Each structure stands twice: as C-alpha cells, then as structure tokens.
Amino acid sequence: MRREAPLILSSVIGIVVILEAFVQVPLLTTIAKELMDWVVILSAAALCLASVHLMRTHIMKVSRRSSLWLYSVPLLVVFIVMSGAGLFGGTKAPVFTWLFDRVYAPVDASLYGMYAFFLLSACFRAFRAKNLLATALLVTGIVVMLGRSALGPMLHHQFPTAVEWIFDIPNTAANRGVLIGATLGLMSASFRLLVGIDRSYMAGE
Amino acid sequence: MLKTPVLPFWVLVGFFAFLAFFIKRGRRVDNIRKISGLEALSEAVGRATEMGRPVFYTPGVGEVMVGASSVSTMAAVEILSYVASLTAKYEVDLIVGVSKGDTYAISDATVKQAYAAASKPDAYNPDMVRYYASGYLAACVGEFQRQQPSTILLFGHYTGEIVFLAEAAAQTGAITIGGMERFNQLPMMVASCDHTLVGEEMYVAGAYLSGNTVKLNCVRVQDLWKLAALVLFVAGSVLATFGNTYLVKLFK
Asked: Which candidate from B2, B117, B192 shows the least CB-CB separation from A23?
C-alpha cells in the first residue's frame, strides 16, 4: 500500500486537473482549484526542506573547516540577514528591499551583463565550417547578423528581406516540427506519469 | 459541456487510448532510433572515471510541481536516476546542482535511491545534491571552475542561463551533454554542447535508457502520431494550395 497509495493519488489528481481544462463542470473546477492551491503549499514545504539542507551543509563546512569553507561564511550571513529581514519585516520592509535592490539586483544584473560575451564565444566555436550543416549555420548566421545591423542594407538592399525570409520560412518550419514532436513527447511522458509507468517522482521506484 | 474546441479533446483521448492499446499488447520494441546524446552518456561517465574527476548534473531551473516546466524537469530527474546509477557503479563523484526547493527534494531522493539500487548506499553523500536557490547560475559556473568536472550534463528546463552554463562548461574542457524542450533557447545549447537532445528526445530518454518494453511502446506510439501529424501537414498543404481549406479550419 505504501507504493500503491501515491500512485492512485497522483493518477486521480492528474486526471481531475486534465479533465477540468477541457470540461465545464463547476464541481470539477472547484476541486481542481483546491488541488492547485495545495501544490503551492507543498512547494513551500519543499522549499523549507531545501533551505534547511542548505544551512546544514554550510554550517557543517564551516565547523569542519572543509575545503573552501570561507565561501560558506558570507552565504550563511546573507541567508540569516535576508531571511530575518523578510520574516520579521515582510517583503516590503526597508531592510529587505534595500538588500534586494542594492545588493541582489546589481549582482544579478552584472552576471547577466556578460551574456553577450558568452554568446560570442559560443558562436565562435559553433560557426566553424567543419561540415555542410555547420557551413549552412555559418552562412545563415552571417546573413542574419548583417541583415539586422546597419551594415547589411548598406552592402545590399536585399539583406533585410533575406533575414525575414529565413525567420518566416525555414525557421518557422523547423520550430513547428520541434514543437509538435515535443508536444507529443510531453503527452506521452504525462501519460506514463499518470498511469504509474514512470515513477521518477517516487525517487526512482 | 466542453470548454475547448472538440478536436483537441478527442486528439488527446485518442492518443491516450492508442497508448493504452500498445502497452496492453506489450510487444517488444527492437528498432528504436539511436539517440547519440543518450548513447554518449555512459561514455561520458566512463571518461570521468578514467580522469578521476567528478560528473556534474543539473536538472535545470524548472520546478517539479508548478508550471509548464514540470514534465521536462521530471524527465531530467529520470535521466538523473540513470546517471546516478552509473556514477555509483563506476565509483565516480557526482555533484547535482539544483535551483528549486521541490526539485531539490526529489533529486536528493532519486540519487539516494539510485545508490541503494546499485548496492552502494554507503557511497551516497547528502552533499552530492546541492541547493543553490537564486544563486544557481553563479554557483554552477563556480563549481565548474573549482571542481573541474570532466562531464557536465545539462537537462531540463532553462531560460537565458543556458548560454552561461554550456559555455562555461565548454571552457573547462568537459564533455557537455544537454537536453531541453524550449525551442527559443535550443540553438544556444546546440551551439555550446557536444551532444544535444532536441525536443521530444529528452522526454523519451527515461524510456530509452530503461529499455523497458512498456515505456518503449509509449515511444513507438509517439512516433506513430508524429507520422500522422506529418501526413496531415502534407495533405493540408496540398489541399490549401488547391484552395481547399477544410483541414486548416479543422485544426483552428
């Protein structure tokens, strides 16, 4: 019963939520809404579990003076200060918003500011004309880059038109092919989860 | 009674009925197309064993319980189960980087179970699965630099961070295998990773790696429906060219 109960529960809940998306029955809508609220509660419980693990791991690292334990000290300090500010003052408290706006947001923005450099480096490696497909990628990439920049129309007036054609025809066709395949894969994976063939949510049972 | 147009509902019912029929018949599936990314998995873990360096795995930034990313995250957890069984077998260090609380809980349990199933419960260490929360991206890139994993596996749901992860992974000289379902981020992954699972390949990974007849029959049905979609595409295009828009209207 320890194995069957979660399977039955997940199957019933899954079927109810799927049916609610298609069928107009008020009772079904109420049940599905209630279930979706429970998802948020369970998700919050899992977040607590993960936060406890995070704290435990880093406290252990500091107390045992494991390798790179110094990195754990700022993490613990920031975790305690940020959680304390949020728990006692709420997310609108000046300390919390100051920490978020003046510390978290700039650090996050500076990390994402390096996006272009990482992308450039990835393009440099990917655009090597090793074979026919890689050459096609290289040529397409050059045409799109020129078409989207000021230089393209100066070289030839047809560059923007070529870019539009690439986006509207081959790109859309490939996009739809992948999308249909992915949707069918999603349906198949959902079915496996619903009927209990795939039990990855039961930790590899 | 029906909220949506009738056709999508019956397509869904038909798909599930077809799946149930094939699963019940339970014939062995021998001729499944080879997926190079999945074939390379054991090779990549073997390389980590030879080099004595860890394997880094991340199931993406999606949540298991909430949102459209849940199924792809589940698929990533299924692949994690296979990878953990390999690292347990070859006695290689495994680091799993997680960004969401619910994904952490399920990933930790999966790794623990995989080590137990491989008769190596003592080799499991709670520090293997690491919860990075909102510092996920910086933490992953930092782990790549400090731990120098020989194999980096990126599966699941990603947004813009995939460029950083895959590129930082490539810069360490590690073998990178990735898989995701989002089309708009897929080109970045293809450009940066050594092997990539595209679209539905990630969803079938669990079935493919398990070799389970029932799961493989699901993949077969999926392929048959893909064939049907292709036929409808061609028929719709031909009919529309000659002015008949019946199929186009039917699917609107």
From this structure: B2
The tokens describing B187, both together, are 């080109």
Q: State which residue of chain A sits closest to B189, comparing Cα positions.
A: A122
Mutate to test the interface with B, among A48, A58, A188, A195 (most CBs of B within 10 A): A188
The minimum CA-CA distance between A79 and chain B, rounded to whole Å, is 11
- In chain B, what are the domains? 6-23+212-250 (no CATH), 36-210 (3.40.50)
ipTM of the complex: 0.77
Which pLDDT band holds residue A11 (cuts at 50, 70, 90)?
confident
Looking at the fold, whether A45 and A61 belong to one and the same domain comes out as yes
Q: Which residues of A21-37 are buried (b: 16+ CB within 10 A; e: fewer)?
A: ebeeeeebeebbeeeee
Q: What is the pTM of this model?
A: 0.84
- Low-confidence winner among A38-52, A118-132, B165-179 (lowest mean pLDDT): A118-132
Residue of B131, B219, B223 to mutate, interface with A, max A Cβ within 10 Å: B131
Do residues B55 and B153 lie in contact, with contact meaning Cβ atoms separated by under 8 Å? yes
Domain that holds residue A91: 67-113
Contact A191 B19 (CB under 8 A): yes
Judged by CB atoms closer than 8 Å, whether chains meet at B19 and A57 is answered as no
For the stretch A68-92, pLDDT in tens is 889 889 989 988 998 888 888 888 8
Contact B199, A185 (CB under 8 A): yes
B contacts of A123 (beta carbons < 8 Å): 191
Quick one: A100 and A40 in the same domain? Answer: no
Strand-pair partners of B56: B95, B152
Residue A203 lies in a domain: no
**Which of B143, B200, B202, B237 would best serve as a mutation to test chain A binding (most A beta carbons within 10 A)?**
B200
Chain B closest-CA separation from residue A50 CA (Å):
5
Taking CB atoms and an 8 Å cutoff, what residues of chain A touch B248? none
